[in-house]
Give the backbone structure.
Amino acid sequence: MTSQENSHPVKARSTFFYGYIIIFTLFIIQFFMFSQRSSFGVFFKPLTDDFGWSRALISGAFAVSSIMQGISGVIMGGLNDRVGPRIVITLCGILLGAGLLLMSIINSAWQLYLIYAILVGLGMGGLFTPQMSTVARWFVKRRNLMNGLAMSGGGIGGFIAPPIITSLIYGITWRQTFLVLGIVITAAVIIASQFLKRDPSTVRQVPYGENERRTSSLPSGTIGMTLKEALRTPQFWIGVGTAFCFGFVLTTVMVHTVPHVTDMGISPLVAANILAAFNIAFTIGSIVIGIFADKIGFKRGYNISFILLLAAGLLLLPINNEWLLGLFVIVIAFGCGGLGALQPSLVAELFGMKSHGLILGVIGFAYTLGAALGPYLGGLIFDITNSYQLTFTLCMILGLTGLILTIIIRPVKIREKKLIRVKDQI
């Protein structure tokens, strides 16, 4: 943020609050960025048919990409604290678009890993951390609801995109489909990013609801801990643990639901519909639990979300009824949606806004480690045991672990002298 922006006097909100433009813009960006991510599985068969690659090899590229996304999220979160989301998301859009365009010309496994795992992974670092950190800067009241509304773009994209992309693959070719995705997603993300602003002071407004909750005369963006200070608290490591559990359960269920359901004799079409229901339930959960968390507190919302994740244990039951299986998956997705919406609030409530993007990025990296490890272990366990029983048992155990960690977490007390020191630097 420039010194000129800092010199603008902050005044009460005007009739129209620009934060709503921020939420709508992030909804659009989430829709396009997540649509290609959720559709990666539909490229498995075409890539296998053309190159003879194993599913393990292709899945490995996705796992490495998830880790790169986490690393990029740390970097982009720190940059977002300094320069704001317009520059950060534009950069991520360029990286993501370039990766998708280059995927149209790959001819070897090392190119798959270099382009999709590395380049696309780096671009996807803009999907969560800088966007949700921006929401936290714009909203104090209704923060959880706004997180959910912004994230719902990704859930809707995950519902709509797979059948469209599948039709493109078999209507043209998978190479041309990547070319189309690269052009459309690059243009959409870059254009939408130009409407983003770091915080309300850039348009002479204040965060929504700040006047109602504020207890200090200091600007809200200066209050809180640095990453170095946060690392010294047990709360930070508890947050890391909950994020890892969340990532493990979410992606394991999302990736292995279809093969698990089809193994029980249910048709692939019905299995695909269950996966679609998962994405919609994730979206609804992020909004509904966000609304309740704004009323009852983010910690209670977190507890409820992890309780819902315990439904992973129901997948251990020898049931082949598609409606019951769909219901179990929907309950799990509902909890995952709530956790996704509340994670930025956890960081804001525990550590403040001073280094929110950077701290959220580091905790988000723990999520991506779980997201990479869970699906891989699920596939490995199935290869060894020819069953998903142990996999879903692990998901239930990690859901319970996340619940216990959430119950014991306590707010961090930021000493007043830190606030005075920050004030002196302004």
Notes: DSSP finds 18 helices and no strands in the chain. The domain at 218-426 is CATH 1.20.1250.20 (Growth Hormone; Chain: A;). The longest helix spans residues 234-263.
